Amino acid sequence: LSLAPQCSYLCHVGQHFSIRQEAVVISGKKLARQIRDEVRADLEEWVSTGHRRPHLSVILVGDNPASHSYVLNKTRAAADVGISSETILKHTNISEEELLDLIDKLNTDPRVDGLLVQLPLPEHIDERAICNAVSPTKDVDGFHVVNVGRMCLDQSTMLPATPWGVWEIIKRTGIPTFGKNVLVAGRSKNVGMPIAMLLHTDGRHERPGGDATVTISHRYTPKDQLCQHTKIADIIVAAAGIPNLITADMIKEGAAVIDVGINRVQDPITGKSRLVGDVDFEGVRQKAGFITPVPGGVGPMTVAMLMKNTVKAAKNVLLCPPQRIRMAVAS
C-alpha cells in the first residue's frame, strides 16, 4: 500500500480536528479505482509469467432490475481489470435441483476460476444451500460455510466483498481501529456479522483484525439503547437497510460513519425515486469526522474487492490439488 493516499487523508484529519468543519466525505469510487489499478497490475504480472487470465462465471436468476444492474457492474469491472467473465441467465422458475446441477458443473469446469450466484434468489430456492454448493476455492462472494468459518478463525480466506470493502475503506483512509469503540448496525450473515468479525479480531493473526471493541445492534435493539452505543462509538457502520437510522444527534463529534445501506425512497419534492443509505447524510456530515456517501461509497468498493477475490481464486487453484477441492465441496 502506497503512503500517498493515506498521507492525503491524514492531512485532512489534522485540518479537521484543528478547526471544526464538515466531515471528510470518503470517495468509494476513488478508492475502488486505486484497488482496481492494483488488481490490473497484479493480473498483468500473473499473465506475463505464462498463466491464463482468470475467468468469472456469474449465475443470474430472474429479472430483478437491481440484480441485473449489479451483475452488469461486476462484469464491466472484470473487463476493466482484465478478467474474462460470463453471465448465465436463468428463468425465475428454475428449480433448486437444476440450479445445484449447474453449480456442480461450473465447480468442476477447470476454465472457471471464480463463481458467484447473484442474490437474492426466488423464494422457492434455499439461498444458504446454494451458497454452500459453490466450491470454497471458487467462492468469490465468500459466503460458503468453509470460508465463513476460516474468517471467524482469523485464517486467510475468501472474505465477503462488502465487509472487505468496508475494512479497506477504514484502513486506506487511516481511520484507527485499535482499542476503539465500534457500533455495527445490522447482523446479517453476509454483511453485518463479517464486518464485526473483521473489526474486533486480533491484528496479529493470519487474517489480521482491527482490535476494536465491537457492539452489534439489530432491529430489536431499543432506540434508546442504540443511541447509548452510537454516542460512544468512534466508528459507526450502518448496515441495517433502514433509511435515516443514524442521525446527527446520535453520534459523537468526529466519529467515522460508514454507510452500507442501499434503500430506494421516493423524493417528496420531485416524486422520483432515489437511492439513500441508512444515515442522514446531510445532517451527520456536519458532525462526523468521516462519512461515506450513498451512492458512491461502499458500493464501488464491493465490486473492487470481488475482483481481488477472483484473482485470488485463480491463484488458489494452483495451491489446491483436485482431491482437496472435491473434499471441500463435499464437506
TrEMBL record:
GO cellular component, one term: mitochondrial matrix
Pfam hit, one: THF_DHG_CYH_C
Domain spans labelled Tetrahydrofolate dehydrogenase/cyclohydrolase catalytic: 26-141
Keyword Oxidoreductase set for record: yes
Cofactors (names): Mg(2+)
GO molecular function, one term: methylenetetrahydrofolate dehydrogenase (NADP+) activity
InterPro entries: Aminoacid_DH-like_N_sf, NAD(P)-bd_dom_sf, THF_DH/CycHdrlase, THF_DH/CycHdrlase_cat_dom, THF_DH/CycHdrlase_CS, THF_DH/CycHdrlase_NAD-bd_dom
Location in the cell: Mitochondrion
Coiled-coil portions: none
Annotated ranges, domain Tetrahydrofolate dehydrogenase/cyclohydrolase NAD(P)-binding: 160-316
Gene3D superfamilies from the UniProt entry: Leucine Dehydrogenase, chain A, domain 1, NAD(P)-binding Rossmann-like Domain
Name of the molecule in the record: Uncharacterized protein
Species for this entry: Oreochromis aureus (Israeli tilapia)
Encoding gene per record: mthfd2
